[in-house]
C-alpha cells in the first residue's frame, strides 16, 4: 500500500464515520450476556455475529466486499467495545458523534451519558490515539496467525476477526498490560512503595515464583521502541490529570525508576515495555482493567484486517495446514475392553 493523498485521506475518514453505528438489532444481542460477563466474551460473540447483520459484504473474492467489510470493522469496533463497557456498568449506550475523531469518539461513547454534555480531553484523546497506533500490528503473533489461518479456509472477515479476538484473550498474549496492573495492585495491597524492595528481592530469587510484569520483550531484546513514546505519553496523562501523587501511580513510577537503575535489570535488558506504560495510561484515563484487552483488540483489528486482506489478495493463497510430527506411543494393538 501507499500513503493516501489528502483527498483520499479525507474521503476514507468520511467513509469510516458513516459506518460507526451498529445495527439496532445487534444492540439487543448484548442483553443475552450476563452483566458481569468478561468484555472479551462479549466482543467474541458480537463481532462474530456481525456477519448475520451485514450480509452484503461476505464475498471475499470481491474486492469491493472486502473493502466494505474492512471499513465496517474498523469503524464499528470502538462502538462495540464501548457498548460492552456500558452494558457491564448498567449505563445506556451512547451513539457515536461523527464530528469527533476516532479516539475522541471512543472516549465519548465510553464516558458520556445522556444526562449532560461531555467534551473529550485532548490530552487523553491523543494518548489513546498513540495506544491504538502502537498496537495496530506486530508481525506474526498468535492472534494474527489465527486470523490468517481462519481466513485461509474462506471464512468471512467478521468470523476471522472474532477468532483473533478469542486468541488475543489468552493471558499469554493480550493480557500483558492487565497482568501488569494486577501486579501493581498486589504490591499496593502488600504495603505499596515501602514493599517494593521486598518485591524486587522476590523477583531476583530464582526459587520464587514472583514475576515482574511489563518488563522485557520476546522480540525486542534491548529497549522496546514503542515504550519510549508511551513513557512520554504516560507522564503527559498523569500530569494532565494531577495523578503524580496517586499511590498506585507513584508505585508504578518508583518501580520504573528502580528497573532503569538496578544493574540486575539493566544487565538483563529488562526495561519497561509498551504494556507497562499503556496499562498505566488506560487506568488513569478511567478504562477498567478488564477492558484493557478489549482496547488491544480494537487497535489490532486494523492490523488483522490488513494481514487478512493481503493473504486473500494473493493468487497463490491456499488453506493453511500446519504440520504435526507424531512423537507418541509406537503401534499398539487394541486390547479387549473386558481384559484391560
Automatic annotation (TrEMBL):
It holds the Pfam family Citrate_synt. One of its GO terms (cellular component) is cytoplasm. Pathway: Carbohydrate metabolism; tricarboxylic acid cycle; isocitrate from oxaloacetate: step 1/2. It is an enzyme of class 2 (transferase). It catalyses: oxaloacetate + acetyl-CoA + H2O = citrate + CoA + H(+). One of its GO terms (molecular function) is citrate synthase activity. Keywords: Transferase, Tricarboxylic acid cycle. Its EC number is 2.3.3.16. The active site is at 217, 275. This is Citrate synthase. It comes from Formivibrio citricus.
Amino acid at each position: 500500500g501507499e500513503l493516501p493523498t489528502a483527498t483520499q485521506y479525507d474521503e476514507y475518514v468520511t467513509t469510516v464515520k458513516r459506518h460507526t453505528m451498529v445495527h439496532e438489532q445487534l444492540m439487543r444481542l448484548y442483553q443475552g450476556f450476563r452483566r458481569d460477563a468478561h468484555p472479551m466474551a462479549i466482543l467474541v460473540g458480537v463481532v462474530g455475529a456481525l456477519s448475520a447483520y451485514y450480509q452484503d459484504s461476505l464475498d471475499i473474492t470481491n474486492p469491493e466486499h472486502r473493502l466494505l467489510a474492512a471499513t465496517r470493522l474498523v469503524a464499528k469496533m470502538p462502538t462495540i467495545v464501548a457498548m460492552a463497557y456500558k452494558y457491564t456498568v448498567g449505563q445506556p449506550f451512547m451513539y457515536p458523534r461523527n464530528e469527533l475523531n476516532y479516539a475522541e469518539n471512543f472516549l465519548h461513547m465510553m464516558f458520556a451519558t445522556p444526562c449532560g454534555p461531555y467534551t473529550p480531553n485532548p490530552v487523553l484523546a491523543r494518548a489513546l490515539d498513540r495506544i491504538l497506533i502502537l498496537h495496530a500490528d506486530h508481525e506474526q503473533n498468535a492472534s494474527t496467525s489465527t486470523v490468517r489461518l481462519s481466513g485461509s479456509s474462506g471464512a468471512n472477515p467478521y468470523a476471522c476477526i472474532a477468532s483473533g479476538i478469542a486468541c488475543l484473550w489468552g493471558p499469554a498474549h493480550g493480557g500483558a498490560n492487565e497482568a501488569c496492573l494486577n501486579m501493581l495492585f498486589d504490591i499496593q495491597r502488600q504495603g505499596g512503595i515501602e514493599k517494593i524492595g521486598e518485591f524486587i528481592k522476590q523477583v531476583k530469587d530464582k526459587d520464587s515464583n514472583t514475576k515482574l510484569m511489563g518488563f522485557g520483550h520476546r522480540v525486542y531484546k534491548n529497549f522496546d521502541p514503542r515504550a519510549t513514546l508511551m513513557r512520554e505519553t504516560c507522564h503527559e496523562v498523569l500530569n494532565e490529570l494531577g495523578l503524580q501523587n496517586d499511590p498506585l501511580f507513584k508505585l508504578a513510577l518508583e518501580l520504573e525508576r528502580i528497573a532503569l537503575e538496578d544493574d540486575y535489570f539493566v544487565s538483563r535488558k529488562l526495561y519497561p515495555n509498551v504494556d507497562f506504560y499503556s496499562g498505566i495510561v488506560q487506568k488513569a484515563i478511567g478504562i477498567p482493567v478488564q477492558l484493557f484487552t478489549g482496547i488491544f483488540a480494537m487497535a489490532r483489528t486494523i492490523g488483522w484486517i490488513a494481514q487478512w486482506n493481503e493473504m486473500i489478495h494473493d493468487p497463490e493463497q491456499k488453506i493453511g495446514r500446519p504440520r504435526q510430527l507424531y512423537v507418541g506411543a509406537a503401534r499398539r494393538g487394541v486390547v479387549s475392553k473386558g481384559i484391560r
